[in-house]
Amino acid sequence: MIFLFDGAQPLDFVGPYDAFTGVARYHPSTEGPPYLVHTASVGGHPVRLAGGLTVTPDLDIDDVSRPDILLVPGGPGAEVPNPAVASRLRTLGPDAECLASVCTGSLLLAEAGLLDGRRATTHWSFCGRFARDYPKVQVQRYPIFVEDDGIFTSAGVTAGIDLALALIERDYGRELALRVARLLVVFVRRPGHQAQVSTQLAVQSTRQTRLGDIRAWIADHLDEDLSVPALAERAKMSPRHFARQFHTETGTSPGKYVEQARVETAQRMLTDTVDNVDRIARLCGWGTSEAMRRAFLRVLDESPGSYRARHAASTQPSLRSPA
Fold first, then answer.
1. Which residues 6+ apart lie within 8 Å of 102 measured at CB?
2. In terms of domains, do 109 and 228 share one?
């Protein structure tokens, strides 16, 4: 069941809708489609989505009871929580077998009190406000989606497809989820712990800027001296001018950027390799596992050991990474 409202972001629900309905192509059943997907709104009234598209839902949300999956999209209409929507979620949410939100839909779940004491995420640009407005929620700023005891919250827009594919994998297995991903021309189902905003993606999008080559060099040389003086010398700038220019291009300091790049690489190594923490710390440039542990706690609020224990089980370990 997808709960629609005025100002919902179309892709937040159309992406998951296509993923769920796409399962029927590969899982034929004489008992009906694997997922019977409906839309609902308050009163069953047509809703005007962000961008102006009008959609007529299938049902009145008040006629819905005990849905297997209740999905709440985000969008401008969720940024100022609608009391009528929050009220229905407060009533219906606890009865859903699985409760899920995309993007700022998590604000609606929080407004309904359904995320109190739970880990949750939202679009990266709303994480600060999310934490401020709903202090009882344990806001996770980096993952593309988070699951906490049957409640799933995802990052912005296309992350809703990753969330839907994760639910499909849960219900019907990895192979079928991958087939649906290929149907949707999604390169791969991203794991939930993948960062919303990647330094690697930033390098791809800014390679032509003045410091784009420096940022690419950082990504390939994490185990080297990446202090401001060393980077400034490589960029042929004074340290002060380099730090100012770097902040102008990236919105963050060189030190924080380097730390984020190292953490992202270490995350991948913790889940995709069998390397021990000491080796990962050395290859990523921290030198010691204790320095890596402190960085993880600063950025992820979680130790490397805890991160690996929670996420490595969902991936297939590879060979040791090259020295």
1. 9, 12, 13, 15, 16, 71, 72, 73, 74, 154, 156, 157, 159, 160, 163
2. no
Q: At CA 58, angle to CA 56 and CA 101, rounded to 5?
A: 90
Give the pLDDT band of residue 312 (cuts 50, 70, 90).
low
- In 3D, which of 187, 226, 98 has the Cα closest to residue 150? 98
Do 136 and 227 fall within a single domain? no
When pLDDT is cut at 50, 70 and 90, the band that residue 268 belongs to is confident
Is residue 4 within 8 Å of 43, Cβ to Cβ?
A: no
pLDDT tops 50 at residue 314 = no
| Residue in 105, 72, 79 with CA at minimum distance from that of residue 4 | 72
Last residue of a domain, one of 156, 183, 210: 183
For residues 179 and 203, state if they share a domain: no
SS3 for 16?
helix
84 part of a folded domain: yes
Task: Specify whether 108 is located in the same domain as 59.
Answer: yes
The pTM of this model reads 0.67
pLDDT of residue 317: 41
Domain range for 157 is 2-183
Per the domain annotation, does 122 fall within a domain? yes
Out of 130, 158, 183, a domain closes at 183
Token pair of 159, please? 């992350």
- Measured distance CA(161)–CA(273) in Å, rounded: 26
Cα–Cα dist 202/253, whole Å:
14
Distances in Å between the alpha carbon of 62 and those of 18, 101, 133, 151, 313? 25, 19, 28, 21, 39
Rounded Cα distance between 314 and 173, Å, is 12
User: For the domain that residue 12 is a member of, what is the CATH number?
Assistant: 3.40.50.880
